[in-house]
Amino acid sequence: MAARVLLRRRVAAPFMAATLVGGALFPSVALAEAPSHDHSSKKPIYDDYETFLPPKTVTTPVPSPASDTIPPESSSLSPPEHKPRSPTPTDRLAVEIGKARMFLYRYATKAEDAVNGAIDSAFHLERSFTETIASLAPARESGEKLMPGLVYVLVASMAGSITTRNRNILLRASVPLAFGIGAGWLLLPVTMTNVSELLWRYERRFPAVADAHLRTRDGIQNAWRFARVHVDVGKNYVDEKVGDARDIVESWVKKGK
Hints:
The protein contains six helices and no strands.
């Protein structure tokens, strides 16, 4: 037993010396962790090992703009060519329904425009009528009142109709009108002026009627002027004759005395 212990001590001393010398000449770092190995060369033990693997990055070469490897735009992926197919009955029915709808839409639009135009024209006519009637009324500054004056004009027209009730149709139509117009110019001069201006405005739309009106008015004015001149001449003549007769009578009276 003693020999074995001595033998072990003798062998251990050179071994320890050789270990120290090797450590001094060839130093190495002891790693606490296991060395990294290529995981792809060995199969994992657990199933969920692949989830912890880092994702592989695939790098694709980017060609330069001047390189010939860039495909032109015309050589890009073109959509597959579809062969033309004949329209189905459903497609033809849809086209006919679309045409019918467009036809009905156009006619409905035209009808709506016609109705709107008729309503607009009716409103315009109503507004024009009300404005025309309002323009015939006399102004407040004139002091002219319509209600009693219109009643007097109506009474004058009825008087003319009563006067010519046994005459011919021409007199029965013209005399009441003349009486009414005369009473209107006498009692409602401002209103009759407005009415005459309105009639003249409408007459100017028809040149023939306007010319006839002007000629008639000029003839009436000339006749009235001629009549007034003759009346003045006759009045002066009568005054002269009456003066002469009075002088003669006075001279006779003086001679008789």
